[in-house]
User: Fold this.
Amino acid sequence: MNKYFILGLCYSCGSIKPSKIPKFELITKKKEFADFVNMQLNLVLGNSKKYFKNGFYIVECKNSYFSIDKDKLPNLDTSERRRYFLAGYFEGKSSVSVKYKIIKLSGKYELLEQIKKLLELEGVNSKIYKNQKYFSLYIEGKTRCKLFKEKIDYISDKKKKLDRIVW
Assistant:
């Protein structure tokens, strides 16, 4: 992995605690996901820790790398950077439905618009829908999901679900 994958994870599912040295924090009930994020942070940045508290796994990492504005995406001027960032982002926040053959991502409209543009630059078409009070970005159908897999893909258990859609 690289820093852009970590950055994608950070934007999608982590929180940033401002301080002298910004701190990334991820809170999840999924042990495997916490282990994965902790391992990636340690490989890339070298100073992550994971612990269990009140029924949740918490991963923390202090690093100036996390001095970011989560409402505006970073400069992703190469295909490689975009793909790593999108892989991290989707790894952290999306869901995959084998039954409906979709990849779904929910969030703020403005951020989803930026993600949609990044996907388009990689040749992956998506649509944004309003569902009552929130917005969701969908990558729909076997063909589009297959293209997502070829360009971006997953690492976690979501990979198996995506494989079931495209094969």
The longest helix spans residues 79-93. The chain has two domains: 3-66, 94-166.
